[in-house]
Amino acid sequence: MNLIKEYETFLQHHVPMIAFSELEIIKIDQEQCIVKIPFIDKNKNHVQSMYLGALTIGAEVSAGILAFHMIKVMGINSTVVFKDFQASFLRLAKKDVYFICSDIQIVKDSLQETNKTKQRVNFGVNVIAVEDLNNLDERVAEFNITTSVKVLEI
């Protein structure tokens, strides 16, 4: 099974709301995670733009899968939870929305720290939401998510 399909299957089984949104992981590597929430009826609100809940799912998954991916790559027995979530909604989304989290270095550093200290480490990651991957300056929303990792005792 390819890596993207593996992560999508994990999400669908553990967080059914994600499956409902029909989220798709577009890219995951050691630089960034990009996910897409499609602009379909079940992700729209009463003004026919992307529903806030759907936007939140996209932001959370792009940050979370980036951390999960690095946990796997680094071979650390850890888990990810979110401590807080801040969002700036800049304009109405009327197309598919792409969520990009590229804060890989802080993820790596935080995982190394928790692996060394065995203590919980909290860190902020940024996610941007755009309708066009070729125009990252035209943002629909920006998110800052405090992510928390801790090595799990075996």
Q: Spans with pLDDT under 50 lasting ≥5 residues?
A: none
Content of β-strand: 25-35%
Quote the average pLDDT.
Answer: 95
Helicity level = 25-40%
Report on this model:
This protein has one domain (3-151): Roll (Thiol Ester Dehydrase, Chain A), CATH 3.10.129.10. 36% of the residues lie in helices and 32% in strands. It has helices at 3-14, 16-21, 52-74, 104-117, and strands at residues 24-28, 33-37, 78-89, 97-101, 121-130, 139-151. The mean pLDDT is 95.
List the helices and strands and how they pair.
Elements: H1 3-14, H2 16-21, E1 24-28, E2 33-37, H3 52-74, E3 78-89, E4 97-101, H4 104-117, E5 121-130, E6 139-151
Antiparallel strand pairs: 1-2, 2-4, 3-6, 4-5, 5-6
Helix pairs in contact: 3-4
Task: Supply the key terms.
alpha+beta
Q: What's the gist of this structure?
A:
Helices cover 36% and strands 32% of the residues.
